[in-house]
Every structure is written in structure tokens, then in C-alpha cells.
């Protein structure tokens, strides 16, 4: 599982957005590194714009990450797709 923070908002990491589809950006890592080496790929953990968040919002994201890690062994792998 990749854990990522992005400086911009979620709306710029979609198909047609300023930076493009995030899953498309991550495909070379998911497919070319993780799957190639025999790892199952999990949905990435993402936080958009943490520098613009309040302390309470950042704490909520840390709690969300904590919850995600506690349940990580119960997650199903994602379909990365082909190039």
C-alpha cells in the first residue's frame, strides 16, 4: 500500500484534471514494482491538501490512517490493469 499526500485538491487528480488520474500516475509503481515482484496491490491511502487543513482535519486523517493500518490484513487487492 502506498501512502501519499498531495499538495492539491482531489479534483485535480482525476482524468482530465490538471495532474491527471491518480491511479494512472501510480500504475507504473503498482504494476511495474509491486506486482512484478509478487506483491498484492492495495488501494493507496491518500490525503489531499494537508497543508491547507486545520489541526483537527489533520488529526482526523491520522486517525483514518491508523484505522486503515489496523485492518490492512483484511483488505482485498485492487485490479491495477495493464499498460
Kindly summarize this structure in a few lines.
Belongs to the NAD(P)H dehydrogenase (quinone) family. With 83 residues, this protein is α+β, with helices and mostly antiparallel strands.
Structure description:
The two termini are 20 Å apart. The chain is built from two helices and two strands; from the N terminus they run βαβα. It is flat and about 40 Å long. Strands 1-2 form a two-stranded parallel sheet. It has 83 residues and is α+β, with helices and mostly antiparallel strands. It has one domain. α1 links the parallel β1 (3-6) and β2. The mean pLDDT is 93. 36% of the residues lie in helices and 10% in strands.
Content of β-strand: 5-15%
How many independent structural domains? 1
Strand tally: 2
Radius of gyration: 14 Å
SS class: alpha+beta
Uncertain runs: none
The backbone outline, from C-alpha atoms, is flat
Order of helices and strands: EHEH
Largest sheet: 2 strands, parallel
- Mean pLDDT across the residues is 93
Order of strands in the sheet with most strands: 1-2
Q: What gap, in angstroms, lies between the N and C termini? A: 20 Å
- SS field, number of helical segments: 2
Helical fraction equals: 25-40%
What is the element layout, followed by pairings?
Layout: E1 3-6, H1 22-35, E2 45-48, H2 55-70
Parallel strand pairs: 1-2
Key terms for this structure?
10% strand, 83 residues, two-stranded parallel ribbon, 2 helices, alpha+beta
